[in-house]
Amino acid sequence: MLLPHTENRKQKTENIPLRICVPVVEANIHRARNLYLRAARRGFWTELRLDYLAQPDLKRLLRTRPGKVIATNRLESEGGQWQGSEADRRRILEEALALGADCLDVELAADAGWRRELWSRRGSARMILSWHDFSGTPDSSRLEEVLQEMLAADADILKIVTQAREPADNLRVLSLIPQARAAGREIIAFCMGPPGKWSRVVAPSLGSFLTFAPFSKKGASAPGQLTVNEIRRLWKMLK
Fold first, then answer.
1. What crossing angle do the helices spanning 197-206 and 167-174 adopt, rounded to 10°?
2. Pairing of the two strands 20-24 and 211-212
3. Reduced to 3 states, what is the DSSP secondary structure of residue 109?
4. pLDDT tens digits, one per residue of 33-51
5. Domains of the chain
6. 186-192, strands of its sheet edge to edge
7. Rounded Cα gap, residues 176 and 189, in angstroms
8. Second label for 49, Cα 20 to 30 Å away, from 2, 8, 34, 186?
9. Which of 137, 143, 190, 159 is nearest to 74 (CA)?
10. Which residues are paired to 46 by β-bridges?
11. DSSP 51
12. Among 10, 30, 59, 132, which one carries the catalytic annotation?
């Protein structure tokens, strides 16, 4: 028989949603569209990585939206594939917003004036403000600085992701989740790389808005991503 406080903890864990977002890193519009539809049919979110597309025909890609879509156009310096001009990168994101993307991912490093303009005309879309460190995981004081800067900015969801070099790195990043939520903000936070794999599973149980998982390893958009099936299996074990 469970003690009352143990039963309450179990109920809270069972009520935590596991939002899986499938990254789409296809160069071909047809394949990208098919992968999005596959994710939507299974009730998953989709991150459309527009920086991977050879020809970003967004009207074709987003002509219907049966599932939740995050539009991302990531710079090379932020771990993406975009090699065009900054003006064109912004224009494509603006087009995705106009075509009804549910969320727009914009980097903290992007021009603050442009970010504020997007925020003012976002309508029902949600803005994700993201910050990545592919070189490692900063110390706690630096992570706190980043979090405070992001809390002061206009955004619906914050995203802080770093490269884990050792297991303890995960703890510093995961600790940002309760802080952001205590401030009334949604957050996505975990670590990349092999030592960061377990943080991708644990993060949702702490309140991270979602976690990213491809259908197969070749569909990964960042190092250390577990597949959809792996995430779901480990989530069951964790619960």
1. 20
2. parallel
3. coil
4. 999 999 999 999 999 999 9
5. 15-238 (3.20.20.70)
6. 186-192, 157-163, 126-133, 103-107, 69-72, 45-49, 20-24, 211-212
7. 7
8. 186
9. 159
10. 22, 69
11. G
12. 132
- Evaluate whether 41 touches 30 at the Cβ level (below 8 Å): no
CB atoms within 10 A of CB 59: 9
Q: Which residues of the chain have pLDDT under 50?
A: 1-13
Are 72 and 46 contacting, i.e. CB atoms less than 8 angstroms apart? no
> For residue 207, is it left (φ>0), alpha (ψ between -120 and 50) or beta?
left
What pLDDT shows up at residue 14? 54
> In this predicted model, what pLDDT tens digit does every residue of 6-38 receive, in sequence order?
344 444 445 667 999 999 999 999 999 999 999
Query: Residue 61 has which token pair?
Result: 């890609």
Task: Select which of 159, 197, 217, 218 is catalytic.
Answer: 159
Q: Is position 159 annotated as part of the catalytic site? A: yes
In three-state secondary structure terms, 166 is coil
Q: Which residue has the tokens 């899986």?
A: 20
- What span, in angstroms and rounded, lies between the C-alpha atoms of 102 and 36? 13
**Whole-number Å distance between alpha carbons of 130 and 161:** 8
Q: Determine the Cα–Cα distance for residues 21 and 3; give it in Å rounded to an integer.
A: 35
pTM over 0.70? The answer is: yes
d(CA 105, CA 71): 6
